[in-house]
Structure formats: C-alpha cells, structure tokens
Design goal:
The longest helix is centred in the N-terminal third of the chain and has 38 residues. The radius of gyration is 42 Å and the shape is elongated. The N terminus is likely disordered. Strands 8-7-6-9-10-11 form a 6-stranded parallel sheet, with helices on both faces. By secondary structure, it is an alpha/beta fold.
C-alpha cells in the first residue's frame, strides 16, 4: 500500500455546491508540518460542517471523523486502457509484427463482413455465372463478395436489394480504411528505406576495393591519387567510411573531384564510425585490398587514440582480413604503441614526421621538392615493387641491364629487410622483391641483358661544406626531431634562428628538454631564439633576412587544429619574406 497523507475533507454547502472549500486551508494531499509517518485513526479531526464529504476522485478515503486521507498507491496502478495501449505499442514497434497484425485483422474483417452479408444476401447469382444453385455455398459466396467489396470499392454498385446495399456500403468503407492503413505503412517503409540509402546505412558488397577510414583534408587527395593508379586497370572501387553524413561527403568530392576526373573509379560513401565493428563490416573491411586509416581532427593524442581503437577493432578480424593496413599516426611518440597493437599486418606512417623530414631535405637542396612530388604521386614515374622468380641467383648489378623501361633502386627481402642502393654484388634470393622506378606496374618486366657502352663516367667534383644559417618561422610539435636530424647533416658551427610567438623565449629550452632534446647535446648546431609573430612585417625586418641560406616556414602548433588559419598564417609569412628580400 502507498503512503497515506492526511488533510481536511472538501466542504460542499447545500447552496454553493459548485464551489468546494477547505476547512483548514490546507491543500489536498499535502502532509501536515512535522508529520513524517503514515496517518492513523488517532490523527483524524472532525470536520465542522455536517455536509462534509470526501473527494474520492483524488484517490483518498474518508476517515471515521470526516478526515480526508489521500492514498498515493492508486497512482501506481495501471488501468486496463494503459495496459492495452502498451500491448499495442509493443506490437507496432516491430514492423513484422505489425504486418502480421494487419493480415490477421484483414482476415477477420473479411470473415465478419462475409457473415454479415450472408444474413441479407438474396442468394441470386449473376446471369453470366455458369454454376448451378446446388454448386454454390452461400457463406463462401458472401465471403468472396465481401472481399470484392473491400478490394474494389466500385463492386458494390451492382447490388440491387436495399439491405444488401447498406451492408455492402459498410463493407466497402471498412475496406477503404483497411487498405489505406496498408498503403500508409508501405509508404512509410519505402520512405524509411530511401532515407537509409541517403544516409549511407546499407552494406557494401565489394571485394578487392580500397577502404579509407576517416574524412579529413587528405581524403580527397588520396582518392585522386588512387584514381590515377587504377586508370591502367580500367578503374576500381574506393570506399569511404566516416562519421560525416553521406550527402556532405559526396558534395565535397563532386566540387573538388568531379566524375570526369575519376578515370573510371567508383567512389562509395558510407556514414558510420571506424571504431564500431558493425560499421566496419558494412563496408566489407575483411574483403578489401587495402585499408587506409586516417587520423581524425583535434589533438594529436586524441587522434592517435582513435587510431589505436580502430586497430583493436580490426584485430578481431585478422583471421579473415586479406588487406594491407596503413595507419596514420600524428605523434611519433605514439607510433610504438600503434605498431604493438597492429602487429605485422599494419604499417604506420607518422605524417607529421614525414612532412618535416621532406621539408628539411628540400630546403637544403633547391628543386628536390619537385622530385619528391613526381616520385610520390601517380603522375609520371613512381615506385613499384614486385617479385621476379627468373632473377633468383643474379646479382643486383646484373639487374641494371635487364630492365630497359625501369630503374632498379633496391631490394626488399623476404625477411622484411629493406636495402636501397645496395651493393652490386648482392645476390637476389627467393622471395625478394625488386624495387624500381617505372611509369606503371605493367610497363616493365625483366628482359635479356643488352650490351651497352656506358662510356667514361664524369669526374667527381668535391663540394666544400660551409656553415649554414637557417631561419625557422613557427614552432612545430615535432621540432625536436627536425633539430636532431638537421644536426647530423650540417657543418659544425651552423646556426638555426627560430622566431615564433607561440612559445615564450624563457620557456623554449625547458620545452625542448621536456620533449627529449638537450640543447647542449647538439654537436653542429647553435640555436638562436627570437620572439615575434612572423606574419607581422616589423618583426621580420628586425631579422638579418639576407644572411640566411634557407628558410623553413612551419604551421605553428597553436593553429594545428585550424588548417585554414595555419595555411593563411604561413602564406602571409612567405609573402612578407619575399617582399623583404626584393
């Protein structure tokens, strides 16, 4: 039983029955001050008016002395109407049950309508009916008539008797309502399916496709390169799984890479999370030829954590996974953990570190950036790797004359060892792959060696190493790795001048120490710090711009989460430096 509250019964005067009052001024059902225990018969108070009566509509009962006692247990009881409504909700919640209910309801409606029509049916058949009267079952005939009235509203127009017309009209109206409900459910089902297709919730039935997990500023460029790579094969299939909506991704791709530039490659989008196993199975990850995991936006640690969770999801499919997995890592310190979780089937790529190394090599050798652009893209010649059993037992020096349409540059052994520009005496073993630079993977093959007169090689010119003075504009998250790499390749006494407004001068040495770089351990470099915003002209004019041998402009880590802001800041710095130089 629920808790009992005491109060004063409502008083209805004989002459003012429409205006109930309360003798004690207390609200219905409100417990008296200081009372925490259920009311008892001893707490009843008599109402002064002899016409006092309890308001049973409030779920209360009247005590022996006219006291109104509210019982809250009535609110916990469900009425029969509530139970019926809940039962119907359970049935209608599932589409299959609802269709079964409609089918049963339609059958009962036809049987009941046929029985009602049988009561008023005259038994007269149409003149065109070839059956005799003894071949007709009245109840079966009326059920069939009821069905025709329901399915075709115009059928009841041929009925002539008054009673038959009334019953036939009612059956026709019930049939209209029945089929209208079926039509409504069918339309709703089709609309739901179309919305699911627009949202990208259906499963992809593909094999040997390339799967990209994530939608970032790199995704469209990767799709463009894959389209170029698949052109020689007549096109391919690229599937994208990302949390963004399917319509948004399709619109961005259409604006930046229209269909006419995709070279026969089909691009399929699905909306979902790469962290969810069900979404991975929807894009047939276990049948993909290659899987590319792109880091999400935001902080580097959070992006690498998401990559790690995706790797954990893929590990459960390793027995069925046929693809090669490439995972992007934002922070080089997180790479060992991703490799540990991914295992031998996963290859990691620290994008921030790779870009930093390419920038470092390009700034010291003008024109090298164009070489990287030509080799790392699918326009022109690029790197390829393949096994050639007929070359087993030959030395690497012999390969130079066997590939007239390619340039051998290294060997990837079956044990996983990579040798670029190996010794000419290196013998090719079974399972070794030859790394070459060629136009496409089907434009070269080993042939019979030809006699080539190479002539005399040019004389070697020794270049004298000089001290360099390099300007760093901005502060990257991996500035430690760039300084360490630069220290190994420059002449002793070279200087690096660093200008940024993101890290105060007095905290830079401690910041480098925290990242694992002791400035005193640098053998060839001397670091000189400047404070200022590199997009402000007067700050750059205070630097000896003309004395620098090279300049590297980084996207400051303060703008790392906003790529457009970072690019704008770098572009402004470049334009100011060029203007000052001129």
């Amino acid at each position: 039983m629920g808790r009992m509250y005491t109060g004063t019964c409502a008083t209805y005067n004989d002459d003012e029955s429409t205006s109930p009052t309360q003798e004690s001024g207390e609200e219905y059902g409100r417990p008296r001050a200081g009372e925490n225990e259920p009311a008892t018969e001893k707490s009843f108070e008599s109402c002064s008016s002899p016409t006092t009566r309890c308001k049973e509509a409030f779920g209360g009962v009247c005590g022996g002395n006219g006291e109104f006692i509210q019982d809250t247990s009535f609110r916990l009881k469900n009425s029969r109407r509530d139970r019926i409504a809940y039962f119907l909700d359970r049935i209608l919640a599932k589409r299959s049950r609802f269709f079964i209910l409609l089918g049963v309801w339609g059958l009962l409606q036809v049987l009941c309508a046929g029985a009602c029509y049988w009561l008023v049916w005259s038994g007269k058949l149409e003149d065109s009916d070839p059956r005799d009267d003894d071949q007709v079952w009245p109840i079966v005939e009326t059920i069939w008539q009821a069905w025709t009235f329901m399915a075709d509203p115009g059928t009841h127009a041929g009925v002539t008797m008054s009673g038959e017309r009334i019953v036939a009209s009612m059956i026709t109206l019930s049939g209209i309502l029945f089929f209208a409900s079926i039509l409504g459910v069918t339309v709703d089902l089709i609309r739901e399916k179309m919305e699911s297709l627009r949202q990208g919730k259906s499963k992809i039935i593909e094999a040997n496709h390339t799967l990209i997990l994530g939608w970032t500023e790199k995704t469209i460029h990767i799709i463009e390169e894959l389209c170029k790579a698949n052109e020689s094969e007549g096109g391919g299939v690229v599937a994208i799984l990302a949390p963004e909506s399917k319509g948004q991704m399709e619109l961005e791709l259409e604006l930046q890479l229209p269909i006419r530039y995709r070279r026969g490659t089909r691009v399929i989008f699905r909306s979902g999370s790469p962290l969810v196993m069900g979404d991975l199975l929807r894009v047939s990850v276990h049948l993909a030829r290659a899987v590319i995991i792109l880091s999400s936006t935001g902080s580097a640690d959070q992006a690498d954590a998401d990559t790690l969770r995706t790797m954990l999801s893929l590990r459960s499919l390793y027995d069925q996974l046929q693809s090669h997995v490439i995972a992007e890592v934002r922070d080089i310190d997180n790479e060992p953990l991703v490799k540990l979780v991914g295992g031998p089937k996963v290859e990691t790529l620290v994008s921030h570190d790779v870009i930093g190394r390419l920038m470092l090599m390009s700034v010291r050798q003008p024109g090298l950036a164009k070489v990287y652009e030509a080799l790392l893209g699918f326009s022109g010649d690029e790197f390829y790797m393949a096994e050639w059993p007929e070359l087993v037992g030959h030395t690497f020096g012999d390969l130079l004359l066997r590939f007239p349409d390619a340039i051998p540059i290294g060997v990837f052994s079956s044990e996983g060892y990579l040798a670029l520009r190996p010794s000419t005496t290196l013998e090719i073993q079974e399972g070794d792959s030859i790394i070459v630079i060629a136009e496409d993977n089907d434009t070269y093959k080993p042939e019979t060696p030809s006699d080539i007169d190479a002539g005399d090689p040019p004389e070697e010119v020794k270049h004298k190493r000089i001290r360099e003075k390099i300007l760093f504009c901005g502060w990257r998250r991996d500035i430690r790795d760039i300084l360490q790499q630069l220290d190994r390749i420059v002449q002793k006494g070279s200087e690096v001048h660093m200008m940024t407004h993101c890290v105060p001068l007095e905290k830079r040495t401690a910041r480098l120490m925290e990242d694992g770089l002791d400035v005193d351990s640098l053998e060839n470099l001397v670091i000189v710090h400047f404070y200022g915003n590199t997009s402000v002209r007067r700050k750059l004019e205070a630097l000896p711009i003309e004395s620098y041998s090279s300049c590297m402009i980084f996207a400051d880590e303060a703008f790392e989460s906003d790529t457009l802001h970072a690019d704008s800041h770098s572009l402004a710095t470049l334009l100011l430096i060029r203007d000052i130089q001129s």
